[in-house]
């Protein structure tokens, strides 16, 4: 353990300086943020991922305003005997660029776009929840150590060992159709955000705890402590800014995981209530209703949407990590 | 509760999925001349007396039980005819002829006495079990007694405890009551080895249909192993169990003590029968089309992939049948939940519903069914066609009439209500959404409430208090009668006295004195013609009450393997008659 007085001359050039901290000594006008941005810009794959992510967010926010009503039936586009869309590739036409849904004839493009909104909303909110809880718990466990660390670490173990999927199915099954002042899909979305976010925080918590453990022995923490700073100040004013990089990186990587989890819950029938579309729900329809055998296109499209989204977030997250922490790989 | 279990079986078969294996060559042994599409619905295809060969059945699920006293699946009732002889059965013939209930183990239909309170059957004196012992009336009585113990045999229907005269203390079944040489049930008497008398609690005109359920197939008390009896039911039919690997493979071989003269409704053509359970549903279809498998035991029709293959090939289509299965898919329109308690609001729903989209939701005109305008399907005896709400003339729905009814209801701008459905049944989910989309233009807003099918009747739609508390004005449902007459069809779903606090099957909570009166008349009228004339009257009254929105008379596309002989659809089962099949 480093003794508080055993410090090198203060105000040195800190190679591990925080992202936006240490203002006094700007070197040649380039902040660390700028350096990271420069590195990120050079990483073409990560930039491509980032562009797709931005595009997806725009689609999720504004797309539903532009496409047609996703709940309108187009029975005339369906061959009732075979239940499949008329025409090749799932009934792709000018009016329905991604085809129509088997049985109902609902426009696939508008359902994918509306599904993007739901999937991304749940993914972002649950990630925010997981990151919020994970950062607070991780930073407290790492900084205070001792029994606090033990309790939190064991709690995280319990959460990680929890049979989450079973719990999620059971929970969504027993919650009535209206509760907590919410009803229908608002309730379902809140529930999914809670289930996904509340059980994903230990991943974030562990990373933050580890980072905090190494940071708390650093000189600047000792310095803050020596001038009389208390726990909360050190936690949130000294340590937290130094944790921005891992938080940013792992949030970006947690989002695709949560998208997949939401899709699997919808696939298992405990996700969004129809007719509200969601990607997992569309995949589920394709499999349980046997659409895959009569209209493979209908399965490919939501599958592709999930694939592209998850890959874009992952590529962007990896690039971000490389940019913020060039020692980690390569 | 009717053949509700059949619906579950159908859903299981339909929900099965996964990669298809095996070759998809199709074509079968196509060279043989096919009889044509729907040929086996009205006539016997490939009539023959040729013996020999192994008849192979496949099933994508498992039987609820192979014990004739413990099964409620329609296809199992069909299969049990291969190894059992109940007192009565359905005549083995295609078309309307096959709806007749005829004596099987009995020598004639029941003789009614004591003002309808006793039913007496005489049984054939020379029918033998597979071990050569002669069947007596006490074996039949024992089979009936077994059905009283729902802890040992929980799966079959429970008509006997319901209909027979009660005794005190209540009869617990022969597994618990070992007294009187296992003959403790007082409501069934066996004055001599060939006579059996049933004492009823009140007159019940349909009793011949009740004893046609496989539960009256004789069971020798000494051979009964309770829940394990299904591993080797003692045969009285043309075939006996050689082996049964539970839920894997059943092998049947000819029963040497069976005589065609005592059992004209079954035959013994194949030299061996195998039933393979738990096969992949698409694999079954591929094997059927390739000629490696003879019959899909479930009888609920081929999967979507095979449907496309069959219907787009003229030769395959000629080897398929599309019979009415006997099932009605419909929506209960609740008569107690406001504003659906107003007749005109319910009529608005009847008019606004887009019947074509509902039909597509259930699988379209071939695999789903025919658009229904009456509650009773055409294979209910006495059913008559009528169309009060333009279901067939304007299948897209009549918005103008719906809006006019809404005005009469005092809700000119529409209203909001909930619709309950079984969320693990894709077709019902589709139907609920289709109705939601169709009612929206009329201003009727449906909120969707999905429930698991296992507890749909016990905890949700079948609990009136739950329905009222959650404002569920509409509930999806399906119904097939346990026997094909109007009473069997309508009693459970429309009689006022069947409304119960849980497990309710009269979900629309209809309590119309006209309907109740017709049903009670029907229960006490033994003259078949008079009784069957009530069917259409009840049907008409229920539709006038707009208590049920019929969707489709279910149909299933069956592939008729060219290897089979004596193939026809027995309308009572809505599938091929398994008791008479043979091989070329």
Number of helices of chain B: 19
Compute the separation of the termini of chain B in Å.
40 Å
Q: What number of structural domains do the residues of chain A give?
A: 1
Structural class per helix/strand content of chain A? mainly alpha
| Fourth-tier CATH superfamily name of the largest domain in chain B | Dipeptide-binding Protein, Domain 3
Shape assignment of chain B: globular
Largest sheet of chain B: 6 strands, mixed
Please give the most extensive interface between any two protein chains, plus how many residues each contributes. Answer: A-B, 29 and 39 residues
Number of domains of chain B: 2
Run of helices and strands of chain A: HHEEHHHHEEHHHHHH
Summarize the amount of helix of chain A as a percent range: 55-70%
Which of globular, elongated, flat, extended, rod-shaped describes the shape of chain A?
elongated
Span between N and C termini of chain A? Answer: 32 Å
Q: Work out the helicity level of chain B.
A: 25-40%
| Multimer state | heterodimer
What is the total tally of β strands of chain A?
Answer: 4
**Unreliable residue stretches of chain A:** 1-14
The percentage of residues in β strands of chain A lies in under 5%
Task: Give the gist of this structure.
Chain A has 330 residues and is mostly helical.
Task: Describe the secondary-structure layout.
The complex is a heterodimer of chains A (330) and B (584).
Chain A: H1 32-42, H2 44-66, E1 78-79, E2 84-85, H3 88-91, H4 108-144, H5 146-161, H6 164-174, E3 178-179, E4 182-183, H7 184-215, H8 219-226, H9 231-267, H10 279-288, H11 291-294, H12 296-324
Antiparallel strand pairs in A: 1-2, 3-4
Chain B: H1 4-15, H2 39-42, E1 54-58, H3 74-80, E2 88-90, E3 101-103, E4 111-113, E5 118-122, H4 137-146, H5 159-163, E6 188-192, E7 195-199, H6 207-210, E8 239-245, E9 249-254, E10 272-276, H7 281-290, E11 295-296, H8 304-311, H9 314-318, E12 320-321, E13 324-333, H10 343-352, H11 355-361, H12 364-367, E14 369-371, H13 399-409, E15 416-422, H14 426-439, E16 445-451, H15 456-460, H16 464-469, E17 472-479, H17 486-494, H18 513-524, H19 528-544, E18 548-555, E19 558-559, E20 564-565, E21 569-570, E22 575-576, E23 582-583
